[in-house]
Amino acid sequence: MHALHQVLHAFFDLHSFTQDMPDVWAGFQINLKMMVIAEVLVLVLALALALLRGLPGPAAKPLRALAIAYTDFFRGTPIIIVAYFIGLGLPGLQLNFISTLSITTYGVIVLTLVYTAYVTEVYRAGIESVHPSQRAAARSLGLTYMQAMRYVIVPQAVRRVIPPLLNDFVGLQKDTALVSVIGVGEAAALAQNASSIDGNFVSYLVAAVFFILITIPLARFTDHLVATRERRERAQAF
Amino acid sequence: MPFVHVRGVSKWFGSLQVLKQIDLDVPEHNVVCLIGASGSGKSTLLRCLNLLEHVEEGEIVVDGQPLTNGKVDVNALRKKIGIVFQAYNLFPHMTVLQNVTLAPRKGLGVSRERSEEYARALLRRIGLEDKADEYPDRLSGGQQQRVAIVRALAMGPKLMLLDEITSALDPQLVSEVLNLVRELAGSGMTMILATHEMGFAREVADKVCFLDAGCILEEGPPAQIFSAPREPRTREFLARVLEAEKLA
Fold first, then answer.
1. Are residues A141 and B52, on separate chains, in Cβ contact within 8 Å?
2. ipTM of the complex
3. pLDDT-based confidence at B213, cuts 50/70/90?
4. Residue B41, by phi and psi: left (phi above 0), alpha (psi -120 to 50) or beta?
């Protein structure tokens, strides 16, 4: 009986739960802000990088190499180390612009840098999955390489990669909590504060609930998209 | 110089030579049919003519414009040369109308209204106007292939290249596509067809070329090629095709 009481107090104390909610919610708004800004940036930058990596011809080799180096570096480096680099390193440089940004901005930069690398690969897989005959058809009509990409290849590629892309965004949303290590006052950090004041772990549960509440709809939406596409493709097979 | 002038064209895929010293002349308003077994180089030759394949050796001149001197504007050239593929290659994420109007709008700068008007007129001619707003996967193979032909025609090409465009079709859908090609031939379109439809080649072609292992082994008017082929390889090929048609 005593053990159960301890568990309830440590994790599920209702009084602490309602008390911590406003605080953690205030922090969670920073998570929301970071994820939305980072996701928009990632969508655009990753597509640009994927296109760069797919450029044909020997003249584009340095650009391709640059894109490969970028994804290799940021996919290989733990996000927490990127966070230290950016969040502690850039302010330490004491440069005019880049050293005086807000700590939340550094958080967004970290998330954008890392997830752009992941999403670039997702886009690239999508672009490569479009059959070469589609490009041949577009080019044979006199469209330029970029026009063929823009109107024919990329629209098909994007449709195909929406599920894995949303998967990466679930990861990004959770990783907004990781940038607390550079001092962003987001939900996880504020939950930590509240935890030490309350002397229990209920505040973490509050933060967890917030994260789950925004992740579940995204996950169900992804499932829905996958299911719809499978239905359609099965229908086409007949 | 004839409308299409090909001299000494050779092409390799790695160490495999797929075209060997091809010479071909196609006067304007003529229809030339390329026949021969799979892998004999018919498709590759067609793809060389609009530079979808790089020509490694030899000379190609189309409408007085040299293609092989490295100075040609490929995008401008391809606007004059339409190609239709065996697998249709319609854009699956676009409606029929969008498929047909994309290149005129983005490549030629025609306004949306004018390109759609023209596209609808073309679709009406082939009896597919009511499919204008459908997506390609709602169309039969024959309908898709006719749309692919119209998509190429919407650019106002001076030369059409047709690459085995009925080979992927169910037999009962072949004729609707061939009728359209017949109509095009009648209107004076210069065309080069790679085809396995020997009866059709005999009917529409001004000249038939038999390709074998990357060479044009024999060429001549269809009556001569089909009735009195000179080369034993041509006779063999035609006998095999005839045999296959009987079995089907």
1. no
2. 0.91
3. very high
4. left
